[in-house]
Amino acid sequence: MIDYRRLRVALLGAGAVGSQVAALLLKHGDELADRAGAGLELAGIAVRDVDAPRATDLPRELFTTDAETLIVGSDIVIELMGGIEPARSYLLLALRSGADVVTANKALLATHGPELFDAADQVGAQVYYEAAAAGAIPIIRPLRDSLAGDRVNRIMGIVNGTTNYILDRMDTEGADFGDVLAQAQALGYAEADPTADVDGYDAAQKAAILASLAFHTTVPLEAVYREGIRDVDAGIIESARRAGYVVKLLAVCERMNGATGESISVRVYPALIDRGHPLASVHGANNAVFVEAEAAGSLMFYGAGAGGVQTASAVLGDLVSAARRHVAGGVGVGESTYANLPVVEIGRVTTRYQITLEVDDQTGVLATIAGILSEGNVSIATVEQTPTMPPIADASTSPAAGQGTGRARLVIGTHKAVERDLSETVERLAASDVVERVVSVLRVEAD
Amino acid sequence: MIDYRRLRVALLGAGAVGSQVAALLLKHGDELADRAGAGLELAGIAVRDVDAPRATDLPRELFTTDAETLIVGSDIVIELMGGIEPARSYLLLALRSGADVVTANKALLATHGPELFDAADQVGAQVYYEAAAAGAIPIIRPLRDSLAGDRVNRIMGIVNGTTNYILDRMDTEGADFGDVLAQAQALGYAEADPTADVDGYDAAQKAAILASLAFHTTVPLEAVYREGIRDVDAGIIESARRAGYVVKLLAVCERMNGATGESISVRVYPALIDRGHPLASVHGANNAVFVEAEAAGSLMFYGAGAGGVQTASAVLGDLVSAARRHVAGGVGVGESTYANLPVVEIGRVTTRYQITLEVDDQTGVLATIAGILSEGNVSIATVEQTPTMPPIADASTSPAAGQGTGRARLVIGTHKAVERDLSETVERLAASDVVERVVSVLRVEAD
Predict the structure, then answer these.
(1) Cα(A44)–Cα(A53) distance, rounded to whole angstroms?
(2) From the CB of residue B140, how many other CB atoms can be counted at a distance below 10 Å?
(3) Which residue of A has its CA nearest to B282?
(4) In chain A, fewer beta carbons within 10 Å around the N or the C end?
């Protein structure tokens, strides 16, 4: 094992996200060190009550109520407390003492982002906040870096999972808002006080963050127009459906060109989206951000918008980025090939298959074929006999050639099988007396 | 204007992507300087023939055939020549002379990536290659940085636009491979020699790059299993459709756990995808990369996979990133708010609307309503009269209350209108004698 320089990491908060971050950091510490080029030592977790019950099992000695001492002694500070104070003061203290900070706090960034970025600039530190805009979906780096040479014209985002879950259920079940909200609350998809979600406050904070970054402009939260989804009833959803639309709570950040020059609009409201648009296919509690840029054209980023472990992924990505910058200015480490896993040959891959055969339509044929598959360690999931069709070549000479000749087409779906077993089995099928022709063998992925 | 430190940028190659990069760099130079915190001076464009015809109009004095001299005098070198040599030698020369390099050359990275990364590490330089994996889709930074704290288990990518275009046309039109390929060639979607695309070589190069990054493992191009789409005929597509699948050329990079530890598989082939999967909705020449990670769950990145100007967006994003690192170690500049565009209030926003009204079902009502809309500067795109429905409250007391009362429901789709005009118009509609009730007013986005 390489003897890396060790960086001290302070964690503020141990809620749903914080406890996952701590657990993953302890579990995958060695692997993260390889990626960062630095050891990541969890120096402590600042909480209000050391003895409060936690979602995950963490060593009690990590907890402290003395956040200031923890912060001042750390290289990187991760803030997952939420709310404005004391999160703001703690992050300013961290930045002023030279630490890089990682935060998922959208309320804080939407209201005090410029103050934090200024404080970071003054000491050459960095604020990382990938988890603040759309949970685990990487959207900050694409906007900040990948599209830095382009001009973003519009962002349309489904950035609140709770409201998307509610609207999606209303759309698929014809249910009314109140009923679905109650269900969502019972299932833990919505909070007991759902105001932040259903009235669009959460989406408005994210819209302010995305617009600031996309348009290089300070967007105060008050400048974001906001409507929630409480007035969306079953009738509206049904009438949208009849017109070919689906209703989504949308965060729209738009560049506008007027007589007096360029301006932007940032707004959150329930909107009608054509069912053919990629955003219309974002179901359940998922999020997606659709970006239109001058040169890149249309891009979409899709994934889980919330959830403790999903958000923890974004936080840990930021932590590794911050660590890389500490040790090497971020150079090169990303491409390191420390893992060097063996690349297996195709024969050892397992996947599902669809085998299409043209067979003699006789008693016992299926039993013969099933026997060959079974001997080859290929397990059958589905079999379908489709109407017999003559081969195209035959059809041109004699239209009825394939009909009534006692041939049938079998489509066999397999369970997962090893590629080598499968290809040997197909060879034996092809050689079998009852098989006229192997029409196709295709692998099934992404099902 | 701020007097930035100026960085010398060398461009190698002036083909479809190179000429767009040069044109955009000259056009948006000031804006890119603000984002980078450094002036970006196009020092020259190295080509084989200075007088060859180009897609865009560029000053002749920029062109040179002396690539070496141009490279050695530059801070950042952008390589868009393609092919292995002399691209490889030029990039090694650039790195050894301390320049950062930007490249879209997937063939070179898939075969000589480790050599380039090592050369960069030795001098503390950086290789940027966002444009090499999926055109304008930001996938390198998400894999390298955003997911650096997570474990990627699987990547499934539609990473070749030509083959996706061909398979999509075959799927929607029932056409055969040869016919669609000929059409694609006529339209410029496929090359005269389509081997690199249809036989999966291009996708295999991208798969090697993605797998190397995702699994921190050197993946030689020879280790990528590869099948193309030449054998996919109309019958296969049709039979896939009947089974609820669509055929896509898929690049699969997969982590495998076996008795002897972890390994990976990297493979490219036409595969069946369930029509409900997000990858099934990727149409035309678009690309998408679906990533499954341990903590983040499922993510998808979608956009244009190729095209000169789209790829130029990714190249310029890399250029700005490289420039930021030169001047400030990449700190802070991404959040700069130099643009400070005004944020307009909602009243000045223009969008399309759907207005649903309950009206008296009398002669002349539509004329009255159309008159109110027209006076309010709201132009009608569509009007639909839907079957009259009683209000739900009425229905519970008297099921027939709404029927035969001479009421109808009008759904009006508008052209783009100014929000303030629209809301004033809706107020006047609500006050009109012929309107019983304004049922809903919804904005239409993303159509």
Answers:
(1) 17
(2) 26
(3) A278
(4) N
**How far apart, in whole angstroms, are the C-alpha atoms of residue B368 and residue A342?**
75
C-beta separation of B17 from B80 below 8 A: yes
- Taking the CA of residue B40 and the nearest CA in chain A, the distance in Å comes to 11
Sheet with A127-128, side-by-side order of all strands: A63-64, A39-46, A6-12, A76-79, A100-103, A127-128
Q: What angle do CA B299, A211, A315 make, to 5 degrees?
A: 45
Reply yes or no on domain A140-305 having CATH 3.30.360.10. Answer: yes
Could you tell me the CATH superfamily of domain A6-134+310-335? NAD(P)-binding Rossmann-like Domain (3.40.50.720)
Q: Which residues pair with A383 in a beta bridge?
A: A412
Domain B6-131+310-335 has CATH 3.40.50.720: yes
pLDDT over threshold 70, residue A369 = yes
Give, in words, the CATH class of B346-444: alpha beta
Is B206 among the catalytic positions? yes
Q: 3-state SS of A383-424? A: EEEECCCCCHHHHHHCCCCCCCCCEEEEEEEECCEEHHHHHH
Euclidean distance between CA atoms A309 and A18, whole angstroms:
9
What token pair was written down for B378? 């709201």
Among B152, B245, B283, B313, which would you mutate to test the A interface (most chain A Cβ atoms within 10 Å of its Cβ)? B313
Cβ contacts of B420 within 8 Å, gap of 6 or more: B347, B348
Q: ∠ CA A112-A114-A120 to the nearest 5 degrees?
A: 105
Provide, as residue numbers in chain A, all residues whose Cβ is less than 8 Å from the Cβ of B328: 124
**Three-class secondary structure of residue B35 per DSSP:** helix
ipTM confidence: 0.89
Reported as a single tens digit per residue, the pLDDT across B106-159 is: 999 999 999 999 999 899 899 999 999 888 899 999 999 999 999 999 999 999
Structure tokens at A199: 């009235």
The pLDDT of residue A51:
85
pLDDT at B395: 45
Assign A419 a pLDDT band (cuts: 50, 70, 90).
very high
* Interchain pair A146, B34: CB under 8 A: no
Angstrom CA distances, B308 to A96, B15, B60, B104, B282, stand at: 45, 8, 21, 11, 20
Measuring CA to CA, which residue among B106, B292, B333 is closest to residue B207? B106
Task: State the catalytic residue, choosing from A106, A206, A248, A416.
Answer: A206
Preceding omega of A86 cis (within 30 degrees of 0): yes
pLDDT at A310 exceeding the cut of 60: yes
Output the pLDDT for position A5: 86
Answer whether B267 sits within 8 Å of A349, measured CB to CB. Answer: yes
Q: What is the pTM of this model?
A: 0.89
Contact A135, A161 (CB under 8 A): yes
Q: Domain extents for chain B?
A: 6-131+310-335, 140-305, 346-444
A229-250 exposure pattern, b = at least 16 Cβ within 10 A, e = fewer: beebbbbbbebbeebebbbbbb
pLDDT above 70: percentage of residues in chain B: 93
Partner residue facing A341 (CB), from B113, B264, B324: B264
* CA end-to-end distance (rounded Å), chain A: 39
